[in-house]
Each structure stands twice: as C-alpha cells, then as structure tokens.
Automatic annotation (TrEMBL):
Residues 173-470 form the CDC20/Fizzy WD40 domain. This is Cell division cycle 20 homolog. It comes from Cyprinodon variegatus. Keywords: Repeat, WD repeat. Residues 28-78 are annotated as: Disordered.
Amino acid sequence: MAQFGFENDIHSILKLDMPITNAPMARWQRKASSSNTSGLSALSPGKSANVSLSSKTPTKTPGKGKKTPSKMGGDRFIPIRNNKQMDVANFLLTKENEPDDGKTTVSSESKKAWSVTLNGYNIEDAKILHLGGKPLNAPEGYQNNLKVLYSQVTTPASLKKTRYISSNPERILDAPELLNDFYLNLLDWSSRNFVAVALHNHVYLWNAASGDILLLMKLERDEDYVCSLSWTKDGSYLAVGTSDSKVQLWDVENQKRLRSMASHTARVGSLSWNDHILSSGSRSGHIHHHDVRVANHHISTLAGHSQEVCGLKWSPDGRYLASGGNDNLVCLWPRVQEGGSNGEGQLIRSWSEHQGAVKALAWCPWQSNVLASGGGTSDRHIRLWNVNSGSCFSSLDTQSQISSLVFAPNYKELVSAHGYAHNSIVIWKYPSLTKVAELDGHEGRVLNLVLSPDCSTMATVAADETIRIWKAFEMDPAKKKAKERMAKPATSVINQSIR
C-alpha cells in the first residue's frame, strides 16, 4: 500500500493543470517589464511623454549607427577620504622614496593592528599609489642611452676630466762635469726648440725635435767655467756668462762667437734679455745693461745688492727687471731709457721678507703685475708679489730649498724646483698654491728648471749630472691648434745689428 501512495504523490506533482510557483518568468512578461522600466527612466523631470508598451522587433540592429547613451550616475566609484587620510597618504608617498635601513623587524600583522588602534583604519588603505619592486632593465639591444633624460647615476661623460701627470721623465740625458753650484744658471730652452746646457767650460746644444747634440763652444782656459746661459727671444743668439767676468754672444746657426763684452769685476752668474738689451748680474752685486747693437755696449749699472746677484728676470712686457741676490733681497728696476749712457738706475722697490738667498724668480704670463720669488735653504718660501702695490698677497713654506720657479700657462700653474732636502719638482695650482703633483726623479738637488716653447714640457738639471725631460702640461689637441693659429712668428730685433 505504501508503494501505491508514493506513486500517487509523484503523479500529483507532475500534473500541468496547476500553476508552478517557482517557475521562471515568461518571455512576454520579461518584455513588458523591461519596456516599462526603460520608459520610466527616459522621462525628464517636469515633462510628460507617452510610453509605448509595444514589443515589436526593432528594424535596426542595436549598437550600430547609434552611440550608447551615457547613464547618469552609478558608473564611477569615488572613494570618500577624510583630511586625515590624505595627510597620511602624502606622508606615505614621501616615505616610500627613502631607503630602508633594514633595522625594523615588525610584522605586517602588528603594523595593521597598531594602525587600526591609533587611526581607526588600516594605514595601508590610505595609500594613493603603491609601487613595489625594482624596475626591469631593458633587454640587451633595446637600450638607447641617447634617450635617457634623467639619471641619478653619474656617467663617464659627466665626470670632470683630470689630466694624467706621469711621475717618470720622458727622457733622461747625461750631463757629466755639471757644476753643483746653487748660484749658477746653467740651463735654458730656446724658442727654436734647442736646449743649451753648460758643463764646466763647455756649452752643448740638444735639439729637442731630432735629438741631435752639438758642441757650441769651449772656453780657452781649463780653469775657467761657464756660469750662466740665456737665449734671445727669437732663439738665434745665445749669451754666455763666464767665470772670468765676461759675457760672450754666440750666433748659434753659424756656430760663431760675435763678441765678448767685459765690464764686470767678478763672475757673471745670471743673464736676462729685453729685446736688444742684455742684463747681467755679477758676484760683485752689480747689474749691468748691455746694448748689443753698439760698440760701447755698457749703458747702465744697477747697484742695489750687497752680495752676488743670482736671479735676474725681465717681465714679458719689458717694463720691469726683477733681481734676487744672496743678500736675501728682491729688487724691482725700471725699463732702460733709450739713449742712456753709464747712468745709475733708480730702484723702484726692494723686498726683504725672504730669509735666504733669492735665485728663483718668475713673472706671470697672464698677469703682468705678478712676480713669484723663492728663497734658499734658510727660507724655503714661495712668495707672490703685486709689483704695482708692493704687497705680498700669498706665501707658502715648501719645507725645501727653492732653486727655480716657472709659470706654466697651459693650466695656469706654478712649478718649483727644489734642492735640500727633497730634491723634487712640485706643480702648484695658481693662485691657491695647492699641490697638484710632486715629481721625484733626481737623486741630487735640482739646480735649474726651464719650460719648452709650447709650454707643454719642462727640463730640469740636477747635481746627479742628469737632465730630465717631463711632459706635464700637454694641451688638448683642439686648443693646441687654435693657439698655433694665433701665434705669430717672432722676428729678431737685433738681427744684422750686432757688431
């Protein structure tokens, strides 16, 4: 009986003459409902319209020929943030750019709990932007450095270029029988690229371009020796001061002595040219001016030193003559007046700040009123003078005897040669006098230092009987070509006028 009861229940459920309460909505009911909704939503406030409940199939395919109408509202999500959250978000944006020190070990769950307790919300939810991880590098072959606009890493092109100064000389020449005398000036470099060096009673010429060596002259007596050398501006003639109180003048091209001028009473240890005027300093403390164009060459005598004149330099513009002596004085003399004869020169200035013999003198090529002087073993100071005002505007203790000073115009530097106790060559930045480089190559004290015609190379001679060539001031090729174009060939003032 139970079986029959179950079948009757099944038949009653499957009968279609009773409404199905859970059945889906009929198709015609769905169309009517959608028509009513769209009609009501299209009404504008304050206006009436006839709503058609027709369910005819449209003649055009929806979506073609008509743009989808924009719906009013409900299509964007605008988060609501209070002012406090915006401040926190701004703080987080700036905080993300700071590097992590790696010291904090608080877990993310603890941070979230603290944030909810203190702020009332999770601080992570207040972030506006969150960038995580490092950016990926472009694949090899797709990188184009020319399109990089900003970079925090310095590239080699943006680094400041520093020139290389070799600590080793480019060439070493033997100088046997060189006199180890601090007060003598035994080396000079001509504008025609010839280096003259005095070895006892001989004078040799070294062609810096070809490397050839030539014996120019030899003194007649073996007990005599050469004390000083100086080239004319055009490099055609060489003045030679000797221990027998004479000054000889040599024509280098023809290897011929033009004249021998006698006016001093002691050895001539320093020489300097100013056009046709040759100035010579003697052990007697006197300075003589010689006009080499005339027979009576001695035209003036300067008596400002009480001991040997070991330093003598005319300024590049020819206005002043600077002299240094074993009496620790630096003297400044005026230009030689035309037509003067055996007159006494008037001293312009005299400085006595040095505590040792002043042999090293150099005029600044780019500042005609600046004179540099260096003291001997008891002084060791480099001093920079303004000859117009007479003031010493810079001074430096080099801790070593100073034998020579030269200005290097290619990099606006000052070079000093030293004797006891360092026996080195030092390059200083002008005018700060900060050390750029120190060259230690000589095994004895450096006696003289001269610069090449292009100012890129210097030659030093020392008590170790060697001449060393240093390439320390080579210019950039573009700047070098521009300088060569501006340079004009020098003409000899005294050519064909020496008797």
